[in-house]
């Protein structure tokens, strides 16, 4: 089920948003608010081949809902979501809570995984708008052992941050600052485009801040200015144009943008652009 909204869903959203909501986002809010994937949790650990329980809860409203699919994703070493497989599809009624048991593939590599859950709204018994929610990322190991005292050890250390990365656990993955590019040169007084690309399976949610920094040592870099702040829901492609006007311009320095976002789980994330130069 690795696809975007079905044609039926798009048509339903278009029609319903024109009648009941002021915008497409309002229509999504009407049909998808109150949904949450509560299991697996971020603290759960599974061994490849074990079963995981996927639980979805909802705040009841007038729209009949069913769980229609489960997709399993991993997060790779570059912090990008990777589609593994559709693990279940069907029609499972969702009133206030529903759970489905699913087997983690026996050949799954150690790492961080998540479920992407498809919830379908039924309109007069027919397929209506789809809502897509993700679980917290959870840890998968390739094996475990229980000693005589009953303590469990795993094939991979659970505190190994090269495998189980804290930023991924927060939902801070799947977002790339595409522009400006490394080594590019821009002129004071002109506009520069800041472009973000978000994977459709990313858990990044709201853009909260764009800041311009002057690189110093990578730790104590100088904040030049806050270019933008607010709360803007991230589209999969987002761009913003800034007018470069830096009174303290250092033409020998490198500059970069720091992007502040929040994840679907309310965690704070930051992403950096490549370094670039500014000429007078």
Describe the structure.
There is one protein chain. The chain is mainly beta. The chain has 2 domains: 158 residues, Immunoglobulin-like (Sandwich), CATH 2.60.40; 105 residues, Sandwich (Immunoglobulin-like). Helices cover 10% and strands 51% of the residues. The protein has 3 helices and 20 strands. Strands 2, 4, 5, 7, 8 and 9 form a 6-stranded mixed beta sheet that branches. A 4-stranded antiparallel beta sheet has the order 16-15-18-19, with no helix packed on it. The protein has a 3-stranded antiparallel beta sheet with strand order 1-3-6, with no helix packed on it. α1 packs across α2. The longest helix has 14 residues. The protein is flat and about 60 Å long. The protein starts with 6 loop residues before the first helix and ends with a strand. Keywords: Signal.
Strand content: over 45%
The residue ranges in which pLDDT falls below 50 over 5 or more consecutive positions are 3-21
Shape: flat
Query: What is the count of distinct domains?
Result: 2
CATH class of the largest domain: Mainly Beta
Provide a concise account of the structure shown.
With 280 residues, the chain is mainly beta. The protein is built from three helices and 20 strands.
Name the descriptors.
six-stranded mixed beta sheet; Immunoglobulin-like; disordered N terminus; 10% helix; 280 residues; signal; 2 domains; mainly beta; flat; 3 helices
Helix and strand layout, with pairings?
Blueprint lengths: L6 H14 L3 H9 L2 E5 L5 E3 L3 E8 L5 E12 L5 E14 L2 E7 L7 E13 L2 E9 L3 E4 L2 E3 L5 E3 L11 H4 L5 E5 L5 E3 L3 E8 L5 E11 L7 E12 L3 E7 L11 E9 L4 E5 L4 E3 L1
Parallel strand pairs: 2-9, 13-20
Antiparallel strand pairs: 1-3, 3-6, 4-5, 4-7, 7-8, 7-9, 10-11, 12-14, 14-17, 15-16, 15-18, 18-19
Helix pairs in contact: 1-2
């Amino acid at each position: 089920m690795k696809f975007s909204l079905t044609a039926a869903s798009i048509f339903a959203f278009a029609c319903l948003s024109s009648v009941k909501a002021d915008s497409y986002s309002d229509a999504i809010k009407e049909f998808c608010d109150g949904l949450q994937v509560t299991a697996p949790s971020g603290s759960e650990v599974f061994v490849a081949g074990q079963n995981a329980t996927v639980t979805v809860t909802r705040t009841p409203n007038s729209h009949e809902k069913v769980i229609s699919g489960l997709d399993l994703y991993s997060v790779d070493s570059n912090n990008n979501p990777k589609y593994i497989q559709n693990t279940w599809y069907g029609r499972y009624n969702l009133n206030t809570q529903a759970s489905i048991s699913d087997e983690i593939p026996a050949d799954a590599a150690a790492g961080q995984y998540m479920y992407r859950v498809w919830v379908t709204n039924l309109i007069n018994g027919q397929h209506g708008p789809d809502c897509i929610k993700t679980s917290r990322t959870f840890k998968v190991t390739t094996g475990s052992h229980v000693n005589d005292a009953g303590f469990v050890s795993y094939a991979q250390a659970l505190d190994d941050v090269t495998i189980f990365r804290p930023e991924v656990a927060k939902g801070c993955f799947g977002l790339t600052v595409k522009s400006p590019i490394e080594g590019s040169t821009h002129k004071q007084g002109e506009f520069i485009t800041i472009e973000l690309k978000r994977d459709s399976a990313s858990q990044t949610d709201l853009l909260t801040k764009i800041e311009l920094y002057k690189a110093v040592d990578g730790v104590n870099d100088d904040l030049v200015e806050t270019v933008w702040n607010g709360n803007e829901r991230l589209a999969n492609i987002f761009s913003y144009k800034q007018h470069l006007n830096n009174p303290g311009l250092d033409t020998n320095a490198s500059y970069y943008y720091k992007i502040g976002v929040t994840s679907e789980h309310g965690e704070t994330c930051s992403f950096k652009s490549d370094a670039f130069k500014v000429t007078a």
